[in-house]
Amino acid sequence: MKKVGVALLGLGTVGGGTYRILKNNHDSIKKNYGVDLEIRHILEKDMTKARALGVDESIISCDINNIINDAEIKIVAEFFGGIEPAKSFLIKCLLAGKSIVTANKEMFSKYWHELEAAAKKGKAGLYFEASCVGGVPIIRTLTQSMQGNNILSLMGIVNGTTNFILSKMADEGLAYADVLKEAQSLGYAEADPTADVEGFDSMYKLSILSSLAFHTKVPLDKIYREGISKIDKIDIEYGKKFGYALKLLAIGKKQGGKIEARVHPAFVPSSHPLAAVKGSFNAVHIIGDNVGDIMLYGRGAGDLPTGSAIVSDIVFAARQDKHRHATFNNLTDKVSDRGFSKDFCCEYYIRMTVKDVPGVIAAISSAFAKNSISINSIQQQVQGQNASIIFMIHKTGERGIKKALEAIRVINTVESIDALIRVEE
Ligand code: HSE
Predict the structure, then answer these.
(1) Cβ–Cβ < 8 Å for 323, 385
(2) How far is the CA of 154 from the centre of ligand 1 (A)?
(3) What is the pLDDT of residue 335?
(4) What is the DSSP pairing of strand 292-299 with strand 73-78?
(5) Ligand 1: does its nearest atom lie under 6 Å from the Cβ of 106?
(6) CA gyration radius for the chain?
(7) CB of 300 closer than 6 angstroms to any ligand 1 atom
(8) Which residue from 52, 51, 85, 49 is spatially nearest to 67, judged by alpha carbons?
(9) Which residue has the least CA distance to atom 7 on ligand 1?
């Protein structure tokens, strides 16, 4: 029986969940997968966490060298989050020949190449199933199950906090600020919610997922990002009337040989499988040229769901004689613009407030026409001296829309442009 030593960096929510799974499933993992996993060391300064889990205190310290110098430790799972000291510790481990397992999407998306270089040097493995969509096995699906396809599109709800907020706004007609407060009091949203609500977390995950899907490193600076903090509940209501659900989507597509990657709120038809993904659940919808549509659905966060992905990587790593690494076409961090789209195309929902006087719609329509933008439908509601107008726009380029809106904004009968929401089919 192969005995494999494991170390954990941190014993917080996911570290604790991983510890529990490794303990509870030790015998079944041994029986079913032929590896005897032994937790030999844990880095953690808060002993109360360790005591609550019943960890033997003699295997806890704050010194990474206790792990580096233990030749029996072959796999190190990291739960610190953030960049440092996680990155330096993991590079040290990789160079010492220890495989690493991480859920740290920010560090991984920013320093993948550096980690991979250290892994190759140390002949160690680099595993990151838990970095994207928690317990949902999306990384292994992309790396091990799609070889018979060119992936055409990947579209996901990869952040549970924002999906919880948008679902509650839609189902209960509540305002963003009120739901955010509730999400914070339930522990779904952080005290500083920026990383989730402004789309950074989704962007890190999209960088990793689209890099794997398109075999080309997709750096963060090639991803368009917009969050949900400006979403007005009124647009969710109007969207529902038009047959749409609003979601924060992470989208990667390859069209005409170019990759486009973007994170933003978007309407999807209520019949789309992603529309049914509610609350803190996550899902990723993939289209392969041969397999067609696939959707993976599940919990994107939490101690046991994310711990489940970590343990799957630990077992996978423990069973490898030789570790494989990603197969990117671009092998350095210096990625040229050549393979990436500079624009993208969508349908659009645009709401604006105008003065209720003759010629307003003609002036707005003319600005759209000058930018070759075709209107699909117009709905108007008069409110006193003003009118609220919603334009649904046929599929067109983002640049053209932005240009048209610049011209519309300065029409003196246009009071405000209140919402621009992309529509994905
Ligand atoms: N904060 C993330 C979410 C989970 O809300 O989905 C970790 O990436």
Answers:
(1) no
(2) 19
(3) 61
(4) unpaired
(5) no
(6) 24
(7) yes
(8) 85
(9) 301
For ligand 1, say whether the CB of 301 is within 6 Å of any of its atoms.
Answer: yes
Is the beta carbon of 305 within 6 A of some atom in ligand 1? no
Q: Which atom of ligand 1 is nearest to the CA of 195?
A: 1
Please tell me what DSSP assigns to residue 297: E
Domains of the chain with bracketed CATH: 2-131 (3.40.50.720), 138-299 (3.30.360.10), 345-423 (3.30.70.260)
The DSSP string of 200-266 is: HHHHHHHHHHHHHHHTS---GGGEEE--STT--HHHHHHHHHTTEEEEEEEEEEEETTEEEEEEEEE
Asked if residue 395 has pLDDT above 90, the reply is: yes
Half-sphere exposure of 344 (CA within 13 A, CB side): 23
Catalytic residue numbers read 205
Paired tokens of 350: 């645009």
Distance 302 CA to ligand 1 centre (A): 9
Q: What is the pLDDT of residues 219-262, one digit of tens each?
A: 999 999 999 999 999 999 999 999 999 999 999 999 888 999 99
State mean pLDDT over 186-205.
95
How far apart are alpha carbons 223 and 243 in whole angstroms?
A: 28
Residues 284, 116, 14: CA angle, nearest 5 degrees: 50
